[in-house]
Inverse folding.
């Protein structure tokens, strides 16, 4: 297996993946690939039903929609990593959190060649991280239940090669830490 150097940012809702991804892309002179921006193209390739997704969220809430997304998310991870090179990836919060062992293994296998899978978190403590992210991003508070699940689930820690805690750091300082962890700073 050939090792790949692209940086992949993972973490819960509001962890700064898109913000730090943009800074890294500028600093490295590379394109930024935000999986949230292109996910539905990949989802539709394997039969995602958008109307069903809307009904599911309206009737059963966001956690039910997230559960429906899981097989589509694993596929999207595989596809985006196959389709793009020489870029900075930022994944949405759910792509790397899986209860289903087979889906988790698919994501783990897709990420295996990448030496710079970086988990971004404000703090090692789940509740502290949640509180900090809620103070920055209203979506974190709105989707508190699912984000606490993303924060406390072991998947991200199992997949990450590096964990960067950014409490008290500016986005630029966090970017510096990611580059240093990747051996690029």
């Amino acid at each position: 297996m050939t090792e790949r150097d692209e940086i992949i940012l993972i973490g819960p809702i509001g962890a700064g993946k898109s913000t730090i991804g943009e800074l890294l892309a500028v600093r490295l002179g590379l394109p930024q690939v935000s999986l949230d921006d292109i996910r539905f193209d990949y989802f539709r390739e394997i039969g995602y039903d958008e109307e069903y997704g809307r009904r599911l969220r309206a009737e059963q809430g966001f956690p039910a929609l997230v559960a429906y997304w899981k097989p589509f998310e694993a596929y999207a991870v595989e596809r985006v990593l196959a389709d793009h090179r020489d870029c900075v990836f930022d994944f949405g919060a759910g792509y790397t959190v899986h209860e289903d062992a087979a889906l988790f293994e698919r994501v783990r296998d897709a990420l295996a060649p990448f030496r710079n899978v970086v988990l971004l978190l404000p703090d090692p403590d789940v509740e502290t991280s949640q509180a900090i992210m809620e103070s920055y991003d209203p979506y974190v508070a709105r989707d508190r239940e699912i984000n606490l699940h993303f924060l406390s689930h072991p998947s991200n820690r199992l997949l990450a090669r590096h964990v960067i805690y950014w409490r008290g750091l500016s986005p630029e300082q966090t970017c510096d830490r990611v580059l240093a962890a990747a051996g690029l700073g």
Remarks:
- The first helix runs from residue 17 to 28.
- The chain has one domain: 4-181.
- The chain has ten helices and five strands.
